[in-house]
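Lab notebook, design round three. We kept the backbone fixed and only want residue identities now. Task for the bench partner: fill in a sequence for the structure below.
Input structure tokens:
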């Protein structure tokens, strides 16, 4: 199978995007070819992070996502896989259908707990702290048109100490995200390419 082309959609700081770009740089299996963000540059660190790694993040708005322009951009860039990394808008049905089994999301909690509309970033960690949970973690799942509802691909957990504040919880979860997201994407692409060579073969 040809080297797989990954697009990343982000809305914020872009630390996961950075990890993923770094992970695949020099890989024969896949490379990050396109990064898009629905917020303007002053509001999202992802632009500076990807620029430092030689990738110019493309800015788009919610209307372009809904109206099909983002799907056009992804198609023009011959994207095979779409990775959501802190992306906060709903993905339109046409994009989900186009990238069926080739589109993943990461969520900063152990879904199905603390998922759904309004549950993103810090809000999740505040909710976990208020619920006095003894553990939290992160979930990587397939994307569907509904928030955080796609089937789970991988989860990793960490414990919460009573003394942990919201920032401590966030730091533990971010560490897990950086440790696993790129590796899981790589495993998925590897599996898909093995399946492909069986059917080709
Ligand atoms: C990550 O913790 C990710 O799990 C979360 O946003 C953060 C983005 O950080 N995603 C969600 O909350 C989606 N519901 P980053 O921009 O530094 O990668």
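Proposed sequence:
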């Amino acid at each position: 199978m040809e080297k797989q082309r990954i697009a990343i959609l982000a809305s914020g700081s872009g630390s996961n995007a950075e990890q993923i770009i770094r992970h695949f740089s020099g890989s024969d299996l896949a490379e990050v070819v396109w990064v898009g963000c629905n917020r303007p540059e002053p509001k999202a660190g992802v632009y500076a992070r990807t620029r430092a790694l030689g990738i110019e993040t493309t800015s788009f708005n919610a209307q372009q996502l809904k109206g099909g322009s983002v799907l056009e951009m992804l198609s023009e860039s011959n994207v095979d896989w779409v990775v959501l990394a802190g992306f906060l808008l709903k993905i339109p049905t046409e994009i989900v259908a186009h990238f069926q089994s080739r589109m993943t999301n990461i969520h900063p909690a152990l879904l199905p707990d603390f998922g759904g509309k309004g549950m993103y970033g810090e809000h999740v960690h505040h909710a976990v702290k208020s619920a006095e949970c003894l553990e939290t973690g992160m979930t990587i799942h397939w994307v569907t048109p509904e928030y955080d509802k796609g089937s789970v691909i991988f989860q990793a957990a960490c414990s919460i100490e009573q003394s942990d504040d919201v920032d401590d919880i966030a730091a533990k979860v971010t560490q897990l995200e950086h440790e696993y997201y790129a590796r899981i994407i790589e495993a998925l692409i590897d599996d898909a390419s093995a399946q492909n060579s069986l059917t080709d073969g």
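Keep this in mind before ordering anything: The helical segments are 15-24, 46-52, 62-67, 69-76, 93-98, 121-130, 166-200.
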